[in-house]
Amino acid sequence: MLNAIAVFSRSIAEARHHTTLYDFLTSQPRVPAPFDDLLRAQIVISVAAFDKLMHDIVRIGICGAFSGVRPVTSKYLSESISIELHSALVSATIPPKEVLFEQAIVQKLRHLSFQHPDKISEALSLIWNEKHKWDKIALPMGLTGPFASTKMKLIAGRRNAIVHESDMDPLTNSKTPITRAECNDITDFIEACGISIVNAVR
Length: 202
Description:
The chain is mostly helical.
């Protein structure tokens, strides 16, 4: 999972470039335009980086369980596969069954998103037997499980409002205010949450 966390860290660093650009542009005295959408873009990209991380670690964990190098979970054992895939795995030589299985997992996860805390917990159940997941995730962050899961839910909601509603109030059509501090707090939280999850499940 080292590669997954490296990709995540790089994506978060790239997301932070939006704040750097925001600081530069807002410091220019002759630019008659708002740049708040740079902060909104940073939030969207930060959440996307987390979603990508979740896809990566779940795929790696499931494939590790299939190969026998990770313990299986009850959620993993309850997952179904098609008869077509089962037949392909039984008869596989080239490519080997591990490759075919990983390809199938990629396809299975492709249309799922892991941003809401319940969806995150559900996905982690495929590779992690821990019952109190958010408590374990939050502890290294110096937070409580309920606080961390609620904050993740609010972040996912804000991301969805930006992506699907242009961050506008549906009644007034005015954009929800955003600050640099709020944006960086969200990115900081997402980064810490991702690192904590990887450390917990690796």
